[in-house]
Request: fold
Amino acid sequence: MKHYLLAPGPTPVPPVVLQAMAQPMMHHRTPEYEALFAEVRRDLRTLFQCKNEVLMFAASGTGAMEGAVVNTLSPGDHIIVVQGGKFGERWAEICQAYGLHVLAVTVPYGKSVEPAMVAEALRRAPGTKIVLATHSETSTGAIHDIHALAGIVRGTDALLVVDAITSLGVMDLPMDSWGVDIVVSGSQKALMLPPGLAFAALSDKAWARVPEARLPKFYFNFAKERKAIAENQSAYTPAVSLVVGLRESLRLILSEGLPIVFARHDRLARATRAGVQALGLTLFAEHPGAACTAVGAPHGIDGGAVVKGMRKRGITIAGGQGSMKGKIFRISHMGYVDAFDILTALGGLEMVLADLGYPVTLGAGVQAAEQLLRQ
Ligand SMILES: Cc1ncc(COP(=O)(O)O)c(C=O)c1O
Reply:
């Protein structure tokens, strides 16, 4: 059976990237690796839209999240977390694991934070060291207005730390010009790679915090990594094959051009939304992003049954996580995905919904998406 991977990570890997990763192993303490890494360093800065180095770790994205916390904070520090889904909650969980004082600015799942709520929290907690937010909340499909949050945090002593794990390479996030202090991401989303690489980029304001941060750390030591990177090296053994693949995926993204990559994601997201709405389904997020579309399971139908039915037909999408289990399902349009993947997902969805007894006009979702995609 042919398989279609349309879950919000891991995402499909392009053949040219797979092929590059299948090359014989190279040693990392060699001129060959250093030349490869020099290109990757340069292209990562372009992708992150920042002037400082982008640090890279052999970890899933959560590793870079933890790194951002331990490299900027000390025991007992106060932080603000913006949360409206599972990944905002993860920021809080990491900070609680290190005994930090967490003030949560919480919105219901599916909603996006009002920037004024964060301004108010900062007024109430003037000693706050960092504000942690999620650009694209993958568990609900919602986006938070990072540009507005950066405008608020920039005028304070706090740092703005952003989880861009499903927004980097999907939606515009010009880190330096918006004034975001730390951006973290991972390889298995819009970077079109297997899981296993985590990234973190820091502003000058964030780097100034690093020497005074006293939380314990060893592997995720940003200062140590930055020193190694200056020599086109990493402090420890890098995930060599993934870095080889990364060179190819960055070439793909940058040769297409960031504005075009963002426009492509936006178009696929709009087509997906048009398709599911034409089937009478509702979008879960009030302000949906371009990484994935979260769809409310129709009344009387378990979202998990939709995911299972799709998988039986060869299409992998994702269900709801945690308290969202059974209530929603999520279709990704992130990374190596095109118009025909979306039509496949919608066609499959129509058949599965019909199988489950939902009144659906076969072709209605596909038609709505096609109308948008042929423009
Ligand atoms: C927004 C967001 N943050 C964090 C993570 C966690 O990343 P990882 O599973 O790579 O550790 C994910 C993964 O789906 C995510 O989508």
In short: The radius of gyration is 21 Å. The chain is about 40% helix and 15% strand. The domain at 15-255 is CATH 3.40.640.10 (Aspartate Aminotransferase; domain 2). The pocket of pyridoxal-5'-phosphate is lined by residues 9, 60-62, 87, 134, 136, 138, 163, 165-166, 186 (CB under 6 Å).
